[in-house]
Specification:
This protein has 287 residues and is of the alpha/beta class. The chain has two domains: 161 residues, Rossmann fold (3-Layer(aba) Sandwich); 104 residues, Hypothetical Protein, Haloacid Dehalogenase-like Hydrolase, Chain: A, domain 2. The chain contains eight helices and 14 strands. The chain has a six-stranded mixed sheet. It has a five-stranded parallel sheet with strand order 2-1-12-13-14. A three-stranded antiparallel sheet has the order 3-4-5, sandwiched between helices. A hairpin with a 6-residue loop joins strand 10 and strand 11. Helix 1 packs parallel to helix 8. The longest helix is centred in the last third of the chain and has 15 residues. The chain is elongated, with a radius of gyration of 20 Å. 41% of the residues are buried.
């Protein structure tokens, strides 16, 4: 069901590839229009794979006071330390993952809301992928607490499958396990999170917390990890540079890319409609 712009009260925005440009900057139109929308009680928030630490300064720049979603749904928290949801992984799961990683020649790292922890043995992880949190090197993981996400990198499918299989029942109770392959085919990645720590369930938590309804929500994204958001049934907006799969699910595709302030285009469209009462654009503006 396609929602009309007049119902929108909350705009949930992905960060990388959507809100910020290639240099990590937010567009001037976005910054200005987000403040204008806030004056009429229409709010922006974030939903990102980034850690809370790397998302908080974006929230501050946009003057977001309500909670925002980080680590792809593992944490919902505002800038004032008020927590709506924290998907903490149990210590015994962490120890089991460490043991299996070592047995199968994997490289393991893990995140809390602020840091991505590595050991000297696993320092090569820094070269694998874009980091979602500041790196903190520790001698071992024994004193690391309140972990929200575990990442295990393997060079071959057999190793990552062995780890995933051995983390299955009964160890997998309450866990979400996901295996992906790097775009460059250099490694396989096993992501371990608490079950329910995903973008879809966390946007539902946030909407309930704010006492809103699905029809009040617009979501903006560009990448595979935004697909769950587009399954929620809100007003779906894909930026011009989004993957084709996301565009096919979109109610509206922007004329601009993230490097051209696509989010600013959307916010301006919503502001104009709200202040002028204009009719909704034909929603399938797809490319």
């Amino acid at each position: 069901m396609k929602h009309q712009l007049k119902e929108i009260k909350l705009i949930v925005v992905d960060i990388d590839g959507t809100l910020v440009d290639i240099h990590g900057k937010i567009g001037k139109k976005t910054l200005h229009t987000a403040k204008e929308l806030k004056k009429i009680n229409i709010f922006c928030t974030l939903s990102s794979a980034r850690s809370f630490y790397y998302s908080a300064h974006i929230a501050e720049e946009l003057d977001i006071d309500i909670p925002f979603i980080t680590l792809d749904g593992a944490l919902i928290k505002d800038r004032h330390e008020n927590v709506v949801y924290r998907g903490t992984i149990k210590d015994r799961t962490i120890q089991k993952a460490i043991s299996l990683s070592e047995q199968n020649y994997g490289k393991i790292t893990m995140c809390d809301e602020h840091n991505l922890y590595i050991t000297p043995r696993n320092a090569v992880i820094k070269e694998y992928t874009r980091l979602s949190a500041p790196v903190k090197e520790v001698p071992d993981f024994n004193n690391v607490k309140n972990i929200l996400e575990i990442l295990i990198y393997c060079e071959d499918k057999v190793s990552v499958r062995a780890i995933k299989d051995k983390l299955n029942f009964p160890h997998s109770i309450g866990l979400a396990l996901n295996v992906t392959k790097s775009p460059s085919n250099e490694y396989y990645l096993l992501t371990i999170k608490k079950k329910g720590s995903d973008k879809l369930k966390s946007v539902k938590r946030l909407v309930n917390h704010l006492k809103l309804k699905r029809k009040n929500i617009a979501v903006i994204g560009d990448w595979h990890n935004d697909m769950p958001l587009f399954d929620y049934g809100a007003f779906n907006i894909a930026v011009k540079n989004a993957i084709p799969e996301l565009k096919r699910k979109a109610d509206y595709v922007t004329k601009c890319t993230n490097n051209e302030d696509a989010v600013g285009e959307v916010l301006e469209m919503i502001l104009k409609y709200k202040t002028s009462g204009a009719k909704l654009l034909t929603p399938s503006h797809k490319s």
